[in-house]
Design brief:
Number of domains: 2
Helix content: over 70%
Strand content: under 5%
Oligomer: single chain
Number of helices: 5
Order of helices and strands: HHHHH
Length: about 140
């Protein structure tokens, strides 16, 4: 996680620096500070800063991974990664629900946005619990 922490930290620093340069540059052009771009760069820096903080805290809690060791071999990271569904229709349902919510936003139909977001929640729940058998059934 140290590689991710450093990467997002560098991106955060660049975005903050770009926000400062952008603000001064637009002010020097004689039109005043262009606030939309400046605020967008600052908020992007805050977003990547949150990712940096998350990866920093996780990196402190877990053991070093092979990706964090500069002397690691490719075989050090071999093994089972996890379970991946061989075929599922839930991602299509989530995408369809996002499409409905997006169309509602385009045409500014609040009821369609609400229906789409509820469908997104339902599809996400279905995707999450697709292979869930229950705590009792797994223990038996």
């Amino acid at each position: 996680m140290k590689a991710e922490f450093r990467l997002f930290g560098l991106i955060s620093g660049f975005l903050y620096l770009a926000a400062i340069v952008y603000a001064f540059w637009t002010r020097a052009a004689g039109h005043g500070v262009e606030w939309i771009g400046t605020v967008a760069l600052v908020l992007s820096g805050l977003l990547t800063g949150m990712c940096t903080l998350y990866f920093f805290l996780v990196a402190r809690r877990i053991d070093a991974r092979p990706e964090d060791d500069p002397d690691a071999e490719m075989s050090d990271g071999a093994g089972e990664v996890g379970f991946f569904s061989p075929g599922s229709y839930w991602p299509f349902g989530v995408a369809l629900a996002c499409l409905i919510a997006g169309i509602g936003l385009v045409y500014w139909q609040v009821w369609l946005v609400a229906v789409g977001l509820l469908a997104v929640l339902g599809g996400t729940g279905g995707l999450l619990f697709e292979y869930y058998t229950g705590a009792r059934r797994a223990a038996e």
